[in-house]
Amino acid sequence: MRKLNRIILHCTATPEGRHVSVDTIRKWHVKDRGWKDIGYHYVIYLDGSVHEGRPIEQSGAHTSGHNKDSIGIVYVGGCDKNMKAKDTLNEAQEVAMVNLIQALRATHGEMSLHGHNEFAAKACPSFNVKTKFHWLL
């Protein structure tokens, strides 16, 4: 198992309320970008269900230069109907995200929590992790 130090949160950058599956994201990453698999380790659907993506034993492909020691979690959403960045994380997704973060820390040890926007000039995950989840830092 690789050494894990960070959890990095992402959004799918899709319109609020539009379902996107692991298979769809995998297609975007494998067929459209030429990656070997989906870039994220976990995907949180609109209903709050958590789905596995890339095996956690493998480095992800979610944050350039920061994949070796991190886990990538993506929630479905992150844009308004006009494709502008918007915090669309609903209650079910937020509960699932917090539970997943806590479970990963219980299993793999203490890890810092970040948004993709801390490492790249992007809005993703369309909210400020340090503000929204200050109590988890």
How would you explain this protein's 3D organization?
It is a single chain. About 25% of the residues lie in helices and about 20% in strands. It has helices at about 20-30, 90-110, 130, and strands at about 5-10, 15, 40-45, 50, 70-75, 80, 110-115. It is globular and about 40 Å long. The model has no long low-confidence stretch (mean pLDDT about 95). The chain has a single domain (about 5-130), classed as Lysozyme-like. The chain starts with 5 loop residues before the first strand and ends in a 5-residue tail after the last helix. With about 140 residues, it is an alpha/beta fold. The longest helix is centred in the last third of the chain and has 18 residues, at about 90-110. The protein is built from three helices and seven strands, in the order ββαββββαβα.
